[in-house]
Structures are given as structure tokens and as C-alpha cells.
Model the fold of this input.
Amino acid sequence: MNRDLKLYLALTALLALALAGGGVLYLSGEARRQQEGIRRWREIRGEYMATLAQNVQGTLKDAKYLPTRTKALTNLRADRAERVKGIFLWKRGEGVTWQDGVSDAVRDAFPTNARWHAVGTTSLSAPRGWTAPVSNNADIAVAWARLGGGEVAALEVDLRDNLTGSNPGNLFKVGFSIIALLFMILLFFLWQLVRAAQLARMESDRKTTFIDNLSHELKIPLAVVRMKTERLLAGKVTDPQKLQAAYQSIADENGEVIRQVDDLLDLVRTGKGTRRYARGVFDLNLVAHEAATALRDRFPPDGLGVKLADGDVRVNADPDAVRQIIRNLLDNAAKYAAAKGRVDIEVAHAGGWARVTVADRGDGIPPDQRERIFERFYRIDNDLTRTTGGTGIGLCLARCFARDLGGDVTVAARPGGGSIFTLELPEET
Done:
């Protein structure tokens, strides 16, 4: 991880900690403010209710008619809307004669009777007062005033410590949990960033390794071509058979260089999605046999077994691309498994699919790397790959070509040891 990325991550982590700390301090302060407000309300609650009852009496002392009284009570309720939830008029022998917003608990507490005995008071001999609680509900109280003639005007009041119903401690816990969750999400994105940086570094390392390997792969055939060309130019080879062999060797090495360059170009084209295929219907038996024949000298005598399907196995695909897929699979087996036992290539029908398998007796591929070997530039890091040439693009190209043609290339463990690479293409019926 480079220094700039480390610095960025450190600053981001500090910012996250600062935001989390600030959020915790804010929530803690908010909880303290709410607790202080609750404490103050409890101290002045009695005074508030007494004042409210006095306001009722003062508001209605000159109001003799129902419309005037209801209007005055409505205005008083609006002025104290935060705590006053309902208003009503009560009359001896009739009960509640007019109401607005009164709860069932309050209405049930003042039925029709000859005399209203307010809860918490001895009688209605006083001109005003307040009840607490109403029907055993400590959150509801009534501020009232006598109007004369057995009539009472009253306000239903919410006496809860916290009108929102929330507990300051719970508020702090919930807020803290939200901040903690946000902090964890931020840490997750930081981890994703670190992981992306590590993957980018690994990709860069693989590209560097690929360039080194490609340089080595190209350098060997070019050196052979140069050496043989210099011998021919110096006239050191005069025997016709040796001349023919030298020319053939130069052509073969030149073909290997061209193949490596073509693979590199194909890798670029598949990455950009610009690879073009010349589709046609052909017999997969024939293409597989040609690929096996071309690479037979890469295997020991009797080290490559070929089994073709009975009859034609027809597919609609690009024969050159399919030939290259099979060559890449065989080339992989020749490099890493041919010395451990015979490699078998088989063509078969498979329920609507044409299948080519390349089975070897090599060391096998660890389960966690069976998909990774198809990534660009990826090579298993072991003693065999370190001593064997390769660029890490052959299997990647094989899978890319197969999927572009509607099929796939997969790998699985072979019973008894080794690996089985499978090419599947839709069969042309």
C-alpha cells in the first residue's frame, strides 16, 4: 500500500472518529437537556395547573352564553396547544354538555350526577382547581372553574414529563446505535477501498510478471532464429538436409513468436469486446484431431491419447477459435502435466452439447484456484510454474473464446489424481 493511500485512509478514519465522537457528545448533551426539562416540569407542574384553572375562571367570568363560552375556551386551548388536548362544559344532572377533543378517560370520569366531586379535591366549593389523576391515569389532569348554576368549564391537560413519549436514555441509545452503524458502514467502505487497492496492486504485479514472462517467451525463439540465421549467413551449414532442418527450425520458432503476439492481440480484443469470429458449421472431431496432431511432439511417445466421437460432432462456431482453445488446453497439459502421465483428449456428444475433455495426471489444481487460473495473467505460484515457461493468458483466452461462442471451459479434479479441462459448445442438430 503506497504512502498516499495510507495517509488518505488515516485521515478518513480520523474524520469518522471525529464524527462519531461529535455525534455521541451531541446526543449526550441532548439527553441531559431533556432530563433537565423533565426535572423543571415536575417542579412547576402544580403551579402550571393552578394558573391554567385561574385562566379558565378569568376567561369565562363575564361569558354568559354558550357560543361566547365555547369560543373563549377554544382560544384558551389554542394558546396552550402544547399541553391542552381537549375542552368541555359539564352541568349538574346532565354531565358533559359540550366537548372538543376530550378523551374517553376524561369523559368517563365525569358522568351525569347531582354533584361533581373532582378527583384530588374535597368538593367544588372553591371557584377553581384541578384534578390529578383522572381514572388512575397519571398522564391526564383536568383544570376547571365553576361558572355557577351547577355548570363547570374544564380543560383536559397532558401531564407527561416528555410530550414526545421518548425516554432520554433510550434516545441516547438509539442515536448511539445509529452512529455506531454509520461508523461500521464507513469502516466497511474503507475495507473495500483497501481491498480494491490490494487487488489493483496484485493486478499490477501480475501484469509485471506477465511482461517478464512474455519477454522470456519471445526471447528464446528469437535467439534461436538469430543463431541459426547467423550460421546460415556465415555459410557454416552446407548439407542439404541440415539446411532444410535449419530453415524448418527458423520457421517453427518464427511461428511461435507469431502465436505469442496473436495471443496478446486476442487478449486485448477480448478485453475490449472487439474480437470477431468467423462462424461456420464444422466437425469438432476434425478440429480436435488437427490440434492434437500439431502439438503431439510436445508430449512423450504415447503420452497423448486421442479418442474421437462416433460420427460427426457438428458445431456452429469459429473453427480457428475452437482450434486455439483446444491447443491452449493441450499446451497447458504439456507444460504442467505431461511428465506425470498420459494426457487424454476425447470428443463426445453430451445431451445437446459437443464436449472436448483434456484429462491429465498432473499435480492437480487446488479447489480455491480452479476459477482463478482463468483470470488474466494468473499463474499458480509453485515450483513447477516457476520453472516452466508461460504467460498466464492461454486459459483466459480459452474461456473467453468459448463463452463468446455460447459455450464454456471449466476444470475439475480427475479421479485418481490430475485435472480434467472441459470445453463445451452447443451442438448443431
